[in-house]
Amino acid sequence: MSLEREEPTHFGAGPAQLPTEVLQQAAKDLLNYNNLGLGIGEISHRSKDATQIIESSKQNLKELMNIPDTHEVFFMQGGGTTGFSSLATNLAAAYVGKTGQIANAGYLVTGSWSLKSFQEAKRLHVPCEIIFNSKDFNDEGKFVDIPDESLWEDRVKGKKFSYVYLCENETVHGIEWNQLPKCIVDDPNIELVADLSSDILSRKIDVSKYGVIMAGAQKNIGLAGLTLYIIKKSILTNIEKVDDTLLHEFDIPVTPIAFDYPTVVKNNSAYNTIPIFTLHVMNLVFEHLIKKGGVEAQEKENDAKAKILYDILDAYPNFYNLPVKPNARSRMNVVFTLKKEGLDEKFLKDAAERKLTGLKGHRSVGGFRASIYNALTLASVEKLVQFIKDFAVENQ
Amino acid sequence: MSLEREEPTHFGAGPAQLPTEVLQQAAKDLLNYNNLGLGIGEISHRSKDATQIIESSKQNLKELMNIPDTHEVFFMQGGGTTGFSSLATNLAAAYVGKTGQIANAGYLVTGSWSLKSFQEAKRLHVPCEIIFNSKDFNDEGKFVDIPDESLWEDRVKGKKFSYVYLCENETVHGIEWNQLPKCIVDDPNIELVADLSSDILSRKIDVSKYGVIMAGAQKNIGLAGLTLYIIKKSILTNIEKVDDTLLHEFDIPVTPIAFDYPTVVKNNSAYNTIPIFTLHVMNLVFEHLIKKGGVEAQEKENDAKAKILYDILDAYPNFYNLPVKPNARSRMNVVFTLKKEGLDEKFLKDAAERKLTGLKGHRSVGGFRASIYNALTLASVEKLVQFIKDFAVENQ
């Protein structure tokens, strides 16, 4: 049975392409891991081999992201959506633990994922408010940019928040925070909670600025079904200070046990059965990235990929439309439309003939979206660039 | 790269051994599914291929379990522990939707898993009570049997419960309900909610008797990280009748959105990103079982496996001890201890020399446990039987 394949050029937004050598190793390990005579998915999550994978994943991530000792790493089942729920209830509890009071969580809404996360906090009766919705800051009433800090910092300064939430990269609309808002990270009383599901390990970040980082695996780091968390240890301590009775008095919901951060950390991510195969794939992605030169090398490649793609789209301003304002353009999801009507299907068909797939835009936005996560090589993006050029020349 | 392996003889309680041909196919599909040039874990969960896997898994399960039209099948991230939480809040909501009132959920506690499930409902502030704890019905004060219905049916008859919960097979203690309690299944006002994580598809059952069946994948049906649910459609309708404000008035927690059963069903198990590789493995297990002759053939083999294993242990009553009373013995997890002290390590070492692994008992019980789920062949169990006999003869 062959495990060879031609390098795919799939630009889907996720679950996304993974490095072929990672999948080949994972496929082998699915049948026989470490010469155990047994596959990696068939062993106890409390066995020596499983524990070693958990430890190794933590260590590799700490090395890749330069995670300080003030922060802890853990893994949980689920994805971003389960993260929206667990972040809201755990962080609300942490604030009660720290202050003996409640306060609203503040959400910076820049696209549909941050909006969904806010809606989930509200649905669960976690006190929360929208600090700004970027739709309100442009004439189009759309998610097309991130308003300058000067326009909304007054809504933050001097106020108390249980935490402030943002989604670093909005995959649907192709919008990315190119730098963190200073009024949040410079305020020592605010814990920044960030969804990095679609840009984790794509560029260097300063972990010390975050209270919690949450990232679903299925874009840059693995298969669907697993989420990684990096959390400030003091937040864990604050959650532990609160007993369920106190939470109940404050009308804040108790987090389901499998998603209670202190419980998961105390049990080294194996309170319940961690999907060890999925974690192993994630760890293979980490090892692959370390071998490639780490996040620094990856960032350089990602910048180059995004540059040539935006450059070619910008080069045909009468043919391609880029809805997102330049300062908020995502380096991971490049969203564009055709100015001429009636060509959309042809674009996808012609692309598919060159084996360029996954380019259809999200159903709520339309047009096209090229997702260029870590596993997409510069050579693959160059093929797409060539096609975008050829298509414009042939059809304009 | 070889995907061959010697048939393992691993008796771990889970994550457990899977059929080798299932893993071989899964390994191939991890790199290139259906000649897409892309692996099954790399495609959108809303793509045609992913949808086809979801539909096929549902159909295959319906065929295997003869699921009536009154019931719906869906899949969710997580395992049993996430199930404990989501069952409690969804079913409490369903009762409010049906009756406009609240009532306690009733738990039949026969081992540590049903106890954990009760504790989670309580922790989440879902109204609940223990109908019986089997520890209270024997002199040892241990989980070693299931009390006869006549001893506890008075606690059920004429009373109202939002649902009644049981765990069909307790993996830690090796205790199994060999038939469902009549006082529960014959009461049309009671919804039976059952955890079948460790005995699903191991024997024929009458699905119409259950309100909800929940089963984590990692014992009989696949890899960790996915749980299947079979639910009476009327329960879904009842949950939908309740809005969050009413729930809040009744002080019942809102279920996190990724675990809200009606939302998941309406979105065909893809409200959030379903771990499609893990579901594919589950579906391959279903197909493998259909080819083997379905649940009927599997049940016959499982009965034979359990019989020869218990028979050989019973044949050496001075050497082996079987803590569980015969009428509650599990056909999936055979728990035993050695009467002589100081031989435990030797037992495991000698077994390992014959490549018989995973036999150590749960840390809370000690001794040994042979888990003989569907993927363990009769031939593998015969090897274990031979070893158990030889060990007794050599060491008694």
TrEMBL record, chains A, B:
* Catalytic activity line of the entry: 4-(phosphooxy)-L-threonine + 2-oxoglutarate = (R)-3-hydroxy-2-oxo-4-phosphooxybutanoate + L-glutamate; O-phospho-L-serine + 2-oxoglutarate = 3-phosphooxypyruvate + L-glutamate
Q: Does the keyword Transport apply?
A: no
Q: What is its EC number?
A: 2.6.1.52
GO-annotated biological processes:
L-serine biosynthetic process; purine nucleobase biosynthetic process
The record's Gene Ontology cellular component field reads: cytoplasm
**Molecular function (GO) terms listed?**
O-phospho-L-serine:2-oxoglutarate aminotransferase activity; pyridoxal phosphate binding
User: Which family, according to the similarity comment?
Assistant: Belongs to the class-V pyridoxal-phosphate-dependent aminotransferase family. SerC subfamily.
This one is known as: Phosphoserine aminotransferase
Q: Which organism is it from?
A: Naumovozyma dairenensis (strain ATCC 10597 / BCRC 20456 / CBS 421 / NBRC 0211 / NRRL Y-12639) (Saccharomyces dairenensis)
Q: Which gene encodes it?
A: NDAI0D02690
